[in-house]
Amino acid sequence: MNRRPDIETAVRAAAPHALLETLRTLLADAYGALAVELHLADYGLRVLKRLDRPDGEEEPLSLHNSAEGRAFGSQEPREQQVRHGDAVDHYLPVTVRGERLGILTVRLPAERSAPDLVGELTHVADLLGHEILVAERDTDVYQRARRTTRLTLAAEMQWQLLPARACTAAEFAIGAQLEPAYSIHGDNFDWAADADELTLAVTNGMGEGIQASLLTNLAVNALRNARRAGIGIADQAALADQALYDQHRGASHVSTLLLRFELATGRVGVVDAGSPQLWIQRGRTVRRMELEAQLPLGMFEESHYTVQEFHVEPGDRLLLLSDGVYEAVSPAGEAYGDRALARAIQSTRLLPAATVPRAILGELAEYRVTETLDDALVVCLDWFGRQDDDGGS
User: Fold this and answer.
1) Could you check whether the bond before residue 60 is cis, i.e. omega within 30 degrees of 0?
2) Example GO molecular function term (predicted)?
3) Which of 47, 229, 274, 343 has its CA at 20 to 30 Å from residue 337's CA atom?
4) What would the pLDDT profile of 336-363 be if each residue is shown by its tens digit?
5) Can you give the pLDDT at residue 193?
6) How far apart are CA 251 and CA 196, in angstroms?
């Protein structure tokens, strides 16, 4: 019996805040589920928080030392026999186009825990992920559940700007992370893809707190406005530059790195307008790409920007980094970007793009002199290229 249509219809008709409650009833009726729980990844990508457990009543689950965390990391369904019970827990990744939201846990009686049900439950987890993203327009339940502490106002503004923290397509995979997750203020990233191209941007508004966040908000929305008008990245930069200058008359600026990828060819156009760096890993070689430095956005009236070009090859990995990463200093006085960053990129080469930024930022936190992490951003892009109809690249 195919139970998918009835479950899909009921979940999509559920109130935005009641997706999990509705799913519990549906899975109990359809599969005899004994328990259904949802854990969501927190903003710092360190723990999984249970959705409907009051704060303080239950410790969050580690992303590294829990069955749920291992399923989250592998992005594969896992199962575990319930201790002292005749039941099996199924851990199912809740992921939408590469964006890792959390883990759905479904406990089934052992006699009903057949392999053919895993595919159906995986589909349910996928459905739940899509519905959560839709529901977030109308409820704070899911965003509130992701927090281990309160976000600063500046951080709230920055997280609301983001497209996601990961994205996958046939030609590429992207992962990104901001730190400190709960008090970030100036760093941000953005991307958009269509049938022919991918545009990727990293921005860093000068200053601290609300001022930096407001500045970045203006820059990101100006870039989006130009991009959505079908304008190339050089003119996107010029129009955002004009918007920032008109508002601040050169007193504030935003460092920006803009890239446009042709999905069919791997040709990349780039505008380097400020401090973010671009690194490339090709095979076992890691190097910083030397780009033509141009003025940050908003410094002068009517700045002119030009596009440089290079090509990416299948298997290439690109890292976009804010100055909070490569300017970090070790106790010995060595800048992180000199050698430690290259080592960190090499050490994470086997990880998927979605997990690389968190891993590098974790190493950065251990490397630094101070315990407090300045605004830091890492975006990782793995390039697969477009496959020809005959299966070649």
Assistant:
1) no
2) protein serine/threonine phosphatase activity
3) 47
4) 877 889 999 999 999 999 999 999 999 8
5) 97
6) 38
Contacts of 322 (CB under 8 A, 6+ apart): 187, 202, 204, 275, 276, 375, 376, 377, 378
49: which 2 tokens?
Answer: 């928080």
**How many Cα atoms sit within 13 Å of 194 on the Cβ side?**
5
Dihedral sign (CA 61, 64, 67, 70)? positive
Residue 235 region by backbone torsions, left for phi larger than 0, else alpha for psi between -120 and 50, else beta: alpha
- The DSSP bridge partners found for residue 319 are 279, 380
β-bridge partners, 167: 174
Contact (Cβ atoms closer than 8 angstroms) between residue 96 and residue 135? no
d(Cα 201, Cα 270) in Å, to the nearest integer?
A: 10
Asked which of 27-31, 42-46, 207-211, 327-331 is least confident by mean pLDDT, the reply is 327-331
Q: Quote the CA–CA distance of 68 and 64 in Å, as a whole number.
A: 9
Query: How far is 234 from 153, CA to CA, in rounded Å?
Result: 32
Instruction: List the structure tokens of 366.
Output: 């251990």
Token pair recorded at residue 220: 């990101």
3-state SS, residue 213: helix
Task: Tell me which residue of 163, 229, 231 sits closest to 200, measured CA to CA.
Answer: 163
Give one DSSP letter per residue of 347-368, joined into a string. Answer: HTTTS-GGGHHHHHHHHHHHHS
The DSSP 8-state label assigned to residue 9 in this structure reads H
- Helices and strands counted in the chain (H then E): 11, 17
- 177-to-42, 45, 139 alpha-carbon distances in Å: 12, 9, 24
Using the predicted structure, report yes or no on whether residue 87 has a pLDDT greater than 80.
Answer: yes
Which residues touch 49 (CB under 8 Å, ≥6 apart)? 39, 40, 41, 42, 60, 61, 145, 146, 147, 148
* 61-82 pLDDT per residue, tens: 999 999 999 999 999 999 999 9
Tokens 């883990």: give the residue.
Answer: 103
